[in-house]
Amino acid sequence: MSYRLIAEEKPHHPVSRLARVLGVSRAGFYAWQKRPPSQRAKSDAALTERIKSIHEETDGIYGAPRIHAELAGEHGVRVGRKRVARLMRAAGLEGVSRRRRYRVGTTTPGGEAPAAPDLVERDFTAARPDELWFADITYVPTWQGWLYLAAVVDACSRYCVGWSMRDDLRADLVYDALGMAVTRRRPEDELVHHSDRGSQYRSLAFGKLLAQSGIAASMGSRGDAYDNAAMESFMASIKAELINRRRFKTKDEARSAIFSYIEAFYNPRRRHSALGQRSPADYERMLAETALEAASA
User: Fold this and answer.
1) pTM, to two decimals
2) Residue 187 domain-assigned?
């Protein structure tokens, strides 16, 4: 450890002074420098390169827990999580952390229909995909003004089943997101759609689409984010990992980046601790395989 410290500090201080302060000899330091790297050091160097590659592939989003899972799941590399964290610190790498920022209002009062009852009551769990969907709206700042994103997320797998982007907060925003979800998933069993009480979700057209699709409407309490906490988690992820890290010059640039984040990263690849460090798509495949095995047993 003393020799390593001397190597780091010798550009700033004479080796003789450093050796004297640390109680070692100059000859010992120079002999240490000539030694070939240990097997452990070689292993750390190779592992660090893999870590850097994963970190770059995920646009710097993944921290030690997810990189640890990625090494094991995709690369077959079994190492300790603390070792991954240590090497990341040494390489100056860190993942994205969520930091609370100011919130622009996206929930508008009013609406053409009365609010639906709360069928969820803060139970954000689901036993299977397409049993419970959460929905919400967030904003995306660009140099051209606000872009609004509506998304629908499956409670069981965290899969973003539908999304839509518009320049305004009209009901078409949430209608199109639900339309994508219904077209993509074609739900057949009982399904609940949970949202806040914004006017967009209380429009007649949106309610008609829910009824035609056989989906039950559910709405949380007025102004209570905890009544849609699972959806808030999705929005927090896309803000921390994409929106808050970028400066979009145009709305088209923002649309392209959000599309890529959801369809090329979040759904097929982003690992979730709640899913055992699996991605939404991988988790749904696992559930389907398990159900098939149980049916054939």
Assistant:
1) 0.76
2) yes
**Residue showing tokens 């010798």:** 10
Which residues span the domain enclosing 246? Answer: 132-293
Tokens at 198, concatenated: 């914004």
What Å distances lie between residue 284 and 179, 223, 278, CA to CA? 21, 32, 9
Distances (CA, A) of 3 to 7, 8, 12, 44: 6, 9, 15, 18
Determine the Cα–Cα distance for residues 2 and 8; give it in Å rounded to an integer. Answer: 10
Q: Are 106 and 210 in contact (CB under 8 A)?
A: no
Q: Give residue 179's identity as a one-letter amino acid code.
A: G
Q: Which two tokens stand for residue 50?
A: 């893999």
Residue among 174, 36, 197 at smallest CA distance from 112: 197
CATH classification at residue 200: 3.30.420.10
Residue type, 58: T
| 59: CB partners within 8 A, 6+ apart | 241, 265
Q: Looking up tokens 């996206």, which residue turns up? A: 106
Q: Looking at the structure, tell me whether residues 178 and 286 fall in a common domain.
A: yes
Cβ(163)–Cβ(103) below 8 Å: no
- 140-161 as b/e: b if 16+ CB within 10 A: bebeeebbbbbbbbbbbbbbbb
- Write the pLDDT tens digit of every residue in 96-152: 876 555 455 555 555 567 888 889 888 888 999 999 999 999 999 999 999 999 999
Cβ-contact 87, 184 below 8 angstroms: no
* Residue whose C-alpha is closest to residue 103's, from 69, 140, 65: 140
In the chain, the number of structural domains is 3
